Amino acid sequence: MKHLILLNGTMGVGKTSVCQCLKQKLSHCVFLDGDWCWDMHPFTVDKETKALVLDNITSVLNRDLACKTFDYILFCWVIHEESILQELLRRLHTQACRVRTYSLLADADSIQKRIQKDIDAGLRTPDVIGRSLSRLTNYNKMDTIKVDTSNRTIEETAQWLYEDILYN
Hints:
Layout: E1 2-8, H1 15-25, E2 29-33, H2 47-66, E3 72-77, H3 82-91, E4 97-105, H4 108-120, H5 127-135, E5 145-148, H6 154-167
Parallel strand pairs: 1-3, 1-4, 2-3, 4-5
Helix pairs in contact: 1-6, 4-5
């Protein structure tokens, strides 16, 4: 049976890092980061680019789901509203797979520290902290399994997810 594992969360909770680690633990696994579909310059969020990105994500995930090589399909993205998650799920061909949705959470202090490290390394701009913190409460309202990463390493979070995926 195929497994589609969706991880969401605000910027700085560790989605990409955790998925990279989890990918190594799961056999026959492929990983798509939704941010890769937004990698444009200038970064433009409008009706057209939103539709394009969702179409691209859906297309790639459906091809991954159809590929006999993969047993596990990992996907992470900010997905800060339930309606976005439901629209994505509606478009995916998940009839023959198990779908698990997780929200990675962290406290405000942990997020600020993590993003500041990225800012200092030139990987993010300072405005990301405010945007990330403003979305924090959205994830508690979503119909997902919550995983607090505040006091967990990437490896610990990935291991927790690995065990949950295999045994629950």
